[in-house]
Amino acid sequence: VISVQEAQETILSRAQALNPAPVRLDQALGLTLAEPLHSDVDMPPFDKAAVDGFAVRAEDAEEGRVVEIVEEVMAGQVPTRCVVPGQGVRIMTGAPTPEGAETIVMAEDSEPNGDGKIRFTSTTPPERNICRQGEDLRSGAEIVPAGAIMRPQLAGVLAAQGHGTVRCHRRPTVGLLATGDEIVSTEDTPAAGQIRNANNYSLSSQARFAGAETSDLGVAVDRDAELSEAVRLGLEFDVLLLSGGVSAGALDLVPKVLASCGVETLFHHINIKPGRPVLYGVRNGTHVFGLPGNPVATFVCFEILVRPLIRKLMGKPEVGPHFRSATLMGEFRKVDKRERYVGGLLKENKSERTVTAIATHGPADLMALARSNCLIQIPPGTGPYMGGEEVQVVAVVDDSRME
Ligand code: AMP
Ligand code: MG
Q1: Distance between CA atoms of residues 112 and 300, nearest Å
Q2: Whole-model pTM?
Q3: Using CA positions, which residue lies closest to atom 10 of ligand 1?
Q4: pLDDT (tens digit, 9 = 90+) per residue, 366-386?
Q5: 267 in Cβ contact with 12 (< 8 Å)
Q6: Is cis: bond before 152, omega within 30 of 0?
Q7: Which residues neighbour 363 within 8 Å (Cβ) at sequence distance 6 or greater?
Q8: Which residues line ligand 1 (CB under 6 A)?
Q9: What is the Cα–Cα distance from 175 to 231, expressed in whole angstroms?
């Protein structure tokens, strides 16, 4: 069987960023920009008041000076008078400054002085409270390069620069197909021998968290005809995630059915625990995974194999998994020839990052998974760990990282 790393490389070698398409700015969060974006107006677009106050010549902005107010300019208006010595213009935040204005005295630093005049109660230095045209961004300048991720911080400047639609690598579509005669829907009460479908919910959460769009294709029973029918529908998506039916049981029909549907299998079984029977294949640009049925195995295989694929399809510069080191607290005694992933509780404080393995009953123990916020990687053949060792962890809640 191939290593986890070989499996990751095989998948990524088959993937490239999806074709760019125009996306509404308010729908583009987390997507990768496919082209550089430029400004079409200076920011600010005109010399503008940063406070409510009085636009005056520098020499008039002194404590005790009295000036005559010749005009009032609100935001959205344009001044008609220019500022000369002895005169000022009352101006509101966001309004264009009049010609000749050298500084703006805040309203708080003035008092009425009768007859359309005001008196300054403190001294304001030159160039105070004026935002000069183009000081933040020049018209025609690059705002972001191609490959940048649409982050919340970027949305405002793009909106201000008229980029209501941006070309991004589109979100991959992911079809989710559970398999198994014993699997009933989450709305049903399981009869004897039945269990509810957990995997489609874990997988849709994971896929959407990674930025993909998901469609739930339900549950296929363990019969060739029904399974093929469902797989054919699933081959319309960029990624098809089946779960269950890939190991060596009498009704594990997925490998055979995928082959009969024209899926070219690139690997089946890798050196991972949990999740060894995982299968990956391709057909006409659709990436197909036969994920193991056990819910924790399904989850782990998604994080380690599928999430990097989704990131690559989305054109992200770093596809992960993004490992960090942490100090293992407590023992982990199990030694295995396989690369093992164990749910852990990662804690970060000022100077250190620690992680504790969560006790589990095995690859179906969804409660142990629910208590975890990361997966601890135990390399093949290593251990027993006595505590205090550096281990690698991949945080499950980490795709909100936009860098
Ligand atoms: P299989 O690989 O089909 O033999 O499934 C392995 C184990 O995972 C069995 O105990 C199945 O009942 C369970 N399983 C398979 N699919 C699901 C699912 N969608 N939700 C929860 N458990 C599942
Ligand atoms: Mg099954």
Answers
A1: 71
A2: 0.92
A3: 294
A4: 999 999 999 999 999 999 999
A5: no
A6: no
A7: 274, 275, 292, 294, 295, 296, 297
A8: 178, 180, 182-183, 195, 197-199, 243-247, 249, 292-295
A9: 10
